[in-house]
Amino acid sequence: MRSRPTLSWAPGPEVLQLAPGTADVAPVADVVAAGGVVVLSGADYLSVFSKPQLDALAFTFLKLRHSGLDVVGLFWGLWLVPLGVLVMKSRFIPRLLGVLVIAAGVAYIVGRRGNDTTDGWKTGNHIFIFDLGNPASPVYLRDWALDGQQPGGVTPPNFTAVPSIHGPISTGPAGGAIGLTGATADRVYFAYGTGSNGVMQVSDRSKLLGNSYSSGA
Length: 217
Known about the structure:
Elements: E1 6-9, E2 16-19, H1 25-39, H2 51-78, H3 80-89, H4 95-110, E3 127-131, E4 139-144, E5 165-170, E6 187-192, E7 199-204, H5 205-209
Antiparallel strand pairs: 1-2, 3-4, 5-6, 6-7
């Protein structure tokens, strides 16, 4: 019988380790996806199934893999919670940063509203944009997702489902410190998809946030 997952501290970038539980989900999901290849292999023993049935089975395997990666994704956000606690307990990093890291971890885990499905949003997480000028009273600005995930959207060509958000990276406002490094400011880079079939989206930060917030941090 497998032991239950336990939490342990270890040095390195992964502050929180899970052993031996959730790390095993990703390779299992890949094995499940391989089932779709087997189903479409044309083997003689599959002749009892019609082509529509085989197509449906292959698609089912792919959906199961996607669900498995959703489970793993919970823990990609979960590790930010203890990291935020460590930041708050440190004596040289502002406590506010720790609070924001914890909030980011919780947001990564949730990533959806309870009514998103009934409102027509496709499966997977998408971005909620808030003004955190006053962290105690965040102001909702807008939702953001890859075109096709929104209500009424159409799945992009060559995809069986719309890739959900993996994580955004912002270079900050124009004229900020990022410009000193030679990087392009006023950009937000959105990475969609996990494991395969990914999309990189580059957005203008000022247009994404609107004129009222484009000059803030």
